[in-house]
Write a structure and sequence with these properties.
The chain folds into 2 domains: 73 residues, Glutaredoxin (3-Layer(aba) Sandwich); 107 residues, Glutathione S-transferase Yfyf (Class Pi), Chain A, domain 2 (Up-down Bundle). The protein contains 10 helices and 4 strands; from the N terminus they run βαβαββαααααααα. Strand 3 and strand 4 form a beta hairpin. Helix 1 packs parallel to helix 3. It is globular, with a radius of gyration of 17 Å. The termini are far apart.
Length: 214
C-alpha cells in the first residue's frame, strides 16, 4: 500500500497512529506530498484523490480517502474503539481541526484575514476546548480509541500552528491527559515535524483563551 503523506498533517497523523496501534506500519510506503488550500492541487495526489487532499491510501482494492474511512478500514480487527461516544469525539476533534486549517488559509490571504471569520473561528475553538476540558475525565476512563486519536491530532495541530496559545494553562485537566497520551509509543512516533517543505510554511495565528472559557 502507498499513503500520500506529510509529517505536518493532523489527518495524516490519525492514519499513522492507527497504523502503529494496529501493527500495520510495515505494510505502507509513505509518499511525501505538499497540499494546501491556498496552493494549486498537487498532481500526484489529485491522480489518486479527486479532492486533492491527504491522506489518501492506495490499496489493491482501490484508493481510500478521508482519514475516518482509512482508519476504519485499517482497524478491521477492532483494535481501536469505534463506538458512538468515540465517533462523537472524533467528529468534534476533526471538525475543530478543519477550523484550524481554514483559519490558517484565511491568515494567508494577500488582502489580509477577515476579522469576522477569524473571530468566529476563535469562538468555536474556545468552545471545543471547553467541551474537551469538561469531558477529560470521560476521555481518560475510556479505552484508547478513534476519538482519542482525533483529539490528539487536533491538539498537535494547535501546538504546531498556534504555539502561542498556552492552552494548557487554561485547560489543565486536558493538559494532564494530553501528557499521558504523549507517552504512548504511537503518539510519540508520529509527532508533527516541520520538515521545511516548500509551499507549506508554518504560519502562526493569534489565539488566546480567556479565563471564562476554562
Amino acid at each position: 500500500m502507498k499513503l500520500h503523506w506529510s509529517p505536518r498533517s493532523p489527518f495524516v497523523r490519525k492514519v499513522m497512529i492507527t497504523l502503529h496501534e494496529t501493527g500495520r506500519l510495515d505494510e505502507v510506503e509513505l509518499m511525501r506530498n505538499v497540499v494546501a488550500s491556498h496552493l494549486p492541487p498537487n498532481p500526484a495526489v489529485l491522480a489518486d484523490n479527486p479532492l486533492g487532499k491527504i491522506p489518501a491510501l492506495v490499496t489493491e482494492q482501490g484508493v481510500l480517502f478521508d482519514s475516518r474511512v482509512i482508519c476504519a478500514w485499517l482497524d478491521r480487527d477492532g483494535a481501536l474503539d469505534a463506538g458512538v461516544e468515540a465517533q462523537r469525539w472524533q467528529a468534534l476533534a476533526d471538525g475543530a481541526t478543519d477550523i484550524l486549517l481554514a483559519w490558517r488559509t484565511e491568515l494567508l490571504r494577500p488582502q489580509g484575514a477577515w476579522d469576522a471569520i477569524t473571530a468566529s473561528f476563535r469562538a468555536k475553538i474556545a468552545a471545543v476546548m471547553a467541551t474537551l476540558e469538561a469531558e477529560a475525565d470521560a476521555l481518560a476512563s475510556r479505552p484508547f480509541g478513534a476519538g482519542h486519536v482525533a483529539v490528539i491530532c487536533f491538539l498537535g495541530q494547535l501546538d504546531f500552528r498556534w504555539g502561542d496559545s498556552a492552552w494548557r494553562a487554561h485547560f489543565p485537566h486536558l493538559a494532564v491527559l494530553a501528557a499521558t497520551w504523549a507517552e504512548r509509543p504511537s503518539v510519540a512516533a508520529t509527532a508533527i515535524v516541520d520538515d521545511g517543505a516548500a509551499g507549506d510554511e508554518v504560519t502562526a495565528g493569534v489565539l488566546t483563551f480567556e479565563k471564562e472559557t476554562t
